[in-house]
Design a protein that fits this description.
The complex is a heterodimer of chains A (569) and B (336). Chain A is of the alpha+beta class and 569 residues long. Chain A is built from 16 helices and 20 strands. In chain A, helix 12 links the parallel strand 15 and strand 16. The radius of gyration of chain A is 25 Å and the shape is globular. The N terminus of chain A is likely disordered. Chain B has 2 domains: 64 residues, no CATH class; 225 residues, MetI-like (MetI-like fold), CATH 1.10.3720. Classes of the chains: A alpha+beta (569), B mainly alpha (336).
């Protein structure tokens, strides 16, 4: 990955050199982008979906964004506040942002600190149903110190204060435009939601929900030479394969997003030489959760809760370890993910500072080793049916996931490997809208986890893993009392782990936070309640004539679209 | 005839109300969640707030009555106000709001309708224009080479699904030959001859795929109906009178054979409005079919409810049209 970055960086720098000198706003004509899932709105606070957030990122900006390495780059802000430069309070309870001088909205009016204050009020309004409300968690107040200075006060010390107004999911909206759209009135402001005024390189010209967006270059953009394109057509619809085809085979589009298709098919298309496949890795990990509570259907409503008692065999780390050793992660990548996946042994694979290397043994499949491990532990097949018994209970598991071709391939392969170590898996797949739907009345949600093992991908946005690692606290176990809410899906519970979570929330130095996060990751891995499989990246493709693409998975992948340009033939 | 039509129209009201209730119940009882497609990074309490802001925490009967009021009272009033410019007091009148886009459903439907009518409507007309001559000639020359070939082509058209034929024509005509675009540009506006040619080019592939299916269906009906009539006594009489073959086939037989075919054509019209879910998806036409499938996947109940209900209205309406046409085409049929 490092190498790829270097090469891409070098290529970009090389290609950039001759054109920057003569680059001027709007000289490179039209840019065609295809997102096969079309954006429904351009107000990311009302939607929360990736497609909406990324489409809106052409228009709406935040104080700072994350580049492809996960580093902060100032956008609306003049610089990045830190404790050293006095921007972050010594006691970590506030952060002060300064807006760039002369920053204008695309309608020509100046951006002021009040816009940021309004954005905070807009998203935290109790009746608004703001999808990005978690970015303002722990924010006590936002105040305008003067026209260009915004102070965000936290209720308690916040070691990582770059949440509110940072990244594509938490942009600043114009107070004047949204003034009448607070709370329950938010959806009534169709015009504003479909055509927000922003500070980004482009302004909305026409928006057709779930179909197409036409953007024009923002005349008031802060860099007079950018963007190089005068128009962007942002088309939606179709499927991933046809989106890939329109960039890599017919050349009708310049950029296509989220091309999760058969890796061999994608490689064949790329071989045409019209376009290039690009990837960016963030924190997404496809993983198996091993239910630590008993999901036996005979237990009725109490299954998969603390009342049901521990799982008959999955709480034993030896079992989890054997299950993990039996899996050939490289083959899973080859079959289902191609360039968009890497084998991983950590649930927290990135950023580099937080990535542990203590568990890398799992990268190599070892079926004999797994068999030996189980034999040694006395977990053997006592009745000769080819399935091992654990204290007399045959090791049969129900293994569920969402309906998706790649996941079903993975399931089939894993089932095969497990059968070679004497574990029988029954496979089940559930429609994604039900599985991830969170309906407390449905027995098939991933939170209820009425199965022994389940598989899906999770990640966290931004670069700080504190909130994510706190998911595995004992108090976060979903239960009927909490309406099955809670992110500790495999029902892992350890006092030592909870102590680390508390410690991290009080630790500011980055090195220390890195150590704590790695320690938490290792503790989870060694409990074998969670088996990471694939570190998943975003896969996109762009035409070879499109330059300046620096795909980031830490932010909108279009984060630097202002710098994109057409490579002269 | 008039009383029959009026009676049928009145009967349609309770029918449609019942249909709307059934649609609402099916959608509501189905396990779907508008926040399901959001990234997992959005925490559950935020999801609960989103659902509450969509009005999902109201009891089911309240939501149904709310929808009825929005659809049957507020939307027509709004439309009237928009067309006539009268002030009918728009304040506080809530419209049917889509959960995905948070904008009025009816506006989105109005925006999508042209694409669907252009593409699906054109292919319906093209399909009919091709199907009728094929059906007539196949029946007249039953078991000839033409008939056999026609049967083969229509069977292929019948059985090959559009997600295959669509991709096939894209690979041939867009990727290999590069004649036509594979992506439909919905923002394209026809103002002059060159822009009309572009519009024509981008319509050819989806129209071709859809017309193949429609042709297959209707030409089979036409052929069967012609065959029924060709062996009738009145045909022999006509020939015995010394009428030319053209007059016998094109006047006597065709007119009688059209009765069932017209019904099939009329009943197919609501499907034109329903769009072509798969073909629209393949060519990214983004018409009503695309809107419907997207709304189903996104758990956007108000949009699905409104769309399916409009389809129900059209189906009821065109059933009536077919019945009336029957009476006009066939003097033996009288409803009074």
């Amino acid at each position: 990955m490092k190498f790829r970055h270097l090469v891409l960086g070098a290529m970009a720098a090389f290609a950039f050199a001759p054109t920057t000198a003569m680059a001027e706003r709007g000289t490179d004509g039209q840019l065609n982008i295809i997102y096969w899932q079309a954006p429904s709105t351009l107000n990311p606070y009302l939607s929360g979906g990736t497609k909406e957030v990324e489409a809106a990122s052409l228009v709406l900006e935040s104080m700072a964004r994350f580049d492809e390495t996960g580093a902060l780059v100032p956008f609306m802000a003049a610089d990045i506040p830190t404790v050293e430069n006095g921007g972050v309070a010594e006691d970590l309870t506030s952060i002060t942002w300064t807006l760039r001088e002369g920053l204008m909205w695309s309608d020509g009016t100046p951006v002021t600190a009040n816009d940021a204050v309004f954005t905070w009020q807009y998203c935290t309004h109790p009746e608004g149903g703001c999808a990005q409300a978690s970015y303002f968690d722990g924010v006590d107040s936002v105040e305008a110190v003067d026209d260009r200075t915004v102070r965000v006060n936290f209720t308690e010390a916040k070691p990582f204060p770059y949440t509110a107004f940072v990244g594509a999911e938490s942009p600043i909206i114009q107070a004047a435009q949204f003034a009448d759209c607070l709370g329950a009135a938010a959806p009534e402001c169709t015009e504003a939601n479909f055509g927000p005024i922003g500070t980004g390189p482009f302004a909305v010209e026409e928006f057709r929900p779930n179909d197409v967006i036409v953007f024009a270059a923002n005349e008031n953009y802060r860099n007079p030479d950018q963007p190089a394109f005068s128009r962007v057509v942002f088309k939606g619809g179709g499927d991933a394969a046809s989106a890939a085809r329109s960039v890599l085979e017919t050349g009708e589009f310049d950029y296509a997003w989220n091309l999760q298709i058969d890796p061999t098919l994608l490689a064949e298309m790329e071989a045409n030489g019209i376009g290039t496949v690009v990837t960016a890795f963030g924190t997404s990990v496809e993983r198996l959760h091993l239910n630590q509570f008993n999901p036996d259907p005979a237990l009725g409503d109490i299954r998969s809760t603390a009342e049901a008692g521990p799982h008959p065999f999955l709480t034993d780390p030896i079992v989890g370890q054997a299950l993990s050793m039996a899996i050939d992660r490289s083959l899973l990548v080859e079959v289902g993910y191609g360039a968009g996946g890497q084998p991983t042994c950590n649930v927290l694979p990135a950023p580099e500072l937080y990535a542990s290397t203590a568990n890398d043994d799992c990268l190599v499949q070892d079926i004999d080793g797994a068999n030996a491990l189980l034999d040694e532990a006395g977990i053997v097949d006592t009745d000769g049916d080819g399935i091992r018994e654990y204290n007399g209970i045959p090791m049969r598991v129900l293994y569920q996931t969402s309906t998706n071709a790649v996941r079903q391939d993975t399931q089939a392969l894993v089932k095969q490997w497990w059968s070679e170590i004497g574990v029988d898996a029954e496979l089940r797949n559930i429609d994604a809208s039900v599985f991830f739907g969170g309906d407390p009345a449905s027995p098939d949600t991933f939170q209820k986890f009425y199965a022994d093992i389940e598989m899906y991908t999770n990640n966290f946005s931004g670069v700080d893993p504190e909130a994510y690692m706190a998911n595995w606290r004992c108090s976060d176990i979903p239960s009927p009392e909490s309406q099955w809410q809670g992110a500790n899906i495999q029902r892992f519970c350890s006092e030592d782990y909870d102590a680390l979570v508390t410690e991290m929330s009080r630790t500011a130095p980055l090195e220390e936070r890195g150590r704590l996060a790695r320690e938490m990751n290792d503790m989870l891995m060694q409990s074998y309640s969670i088996i990471p499989l694939i570190h998943r990246g975003g896969v996109s493709a762009h035409a070879n004539s499109l330059g300046g693409v620096r795909m980031s998975d830490w932010d909108s992948e279009l984060w630097n679209i202002a710098e994109w340009y057409r490579i002269a033939e | 005839m008039l009383t029959f039509t009026i009676r049928r129209l009145l009967m349609a009201i309770p029918t449609l109300l019942f249909i709307s209730l059934i649609i609402f119940l099916i959608l509501d009882l189905a396990p779907s969640d508008p926040t399901a497609s959001l990234p997992l990074t959005i925490p559950p309490d935020v999801r609960a707030d989103i659902r509450a802001s969509l009005g999902l925490d109201e009891p089911i009967h309240i939501r149904f009555l709310l929808w009825l009021n929005q659809f049957f009272v507020n939307e027509p009033l709004n439309l009237l106000q928009h067309w006539t410019g009268w002030d009918l007091g728009g304040e506080g009148r809530t419209r049917v709001i889509s959960w995905q886009t948070r904008s009025p459903v009816v506006d989105i439907i109005a925006q999508r309708m042209p694409q669907t009518l252009w593409v699906v409507g054109t292919s319906y007309i093209v399909g009919i224009l091709i199907a009728l001559p094929i059906g007539i000639y196949s029946a007249y020359r039953q078991y000839s080479i033409f008939d056999q070939a026609g049967t083969f082509v229509t069977m292929v058209g019948f059985s090959v699904p559009p997600f295959f034929s669509g991709v096939l024509v894209i690979v041939i005509f867009a990727v290999n030959l590069g004649w036509f675009p594979s992506v439909y540009d919905t923002t394209h506006v026809v103002v002059d001859w060159p822009s009309f040619v572009i519009q024509l080019k981008q319509m050819i592939l989806p129209v071709m795929v859809l017309a193949l299916q429609i042709t297959s269906q209707i030409s089979r009906f036409m052929r069967a109906s012609m065959l029924d009539n060709l062996n009738q006594d009145y045909v022999r009489t006509a020939r015995a009178k010394g009428l030319t073959e053209t007059v016998v086939v094109m006047v006597h037989v065709l007119r009688n054979s059209m009765i069932p075919v017209v019904t099939v054509i009329a009943l197919g019209v609501p499907q034109v409005f329903g769009g072509a879910i798969i073909t629209e998806q393949v060519f990214k036409v983004n018409g009503l079919g695309h809107l419907l499938i997207g709304a189903i996947q996104g758990g956007d109940i108000p949009t699905v409810q409104t769309l399916t209900f409009i389809f129900a209205v059209l189906i009821v309406l065109f059933n009536l049209v077919a019945d009336v046409l029957y009476g006009i085409l066939d003097p033996r049929i009288r409803y009074d």
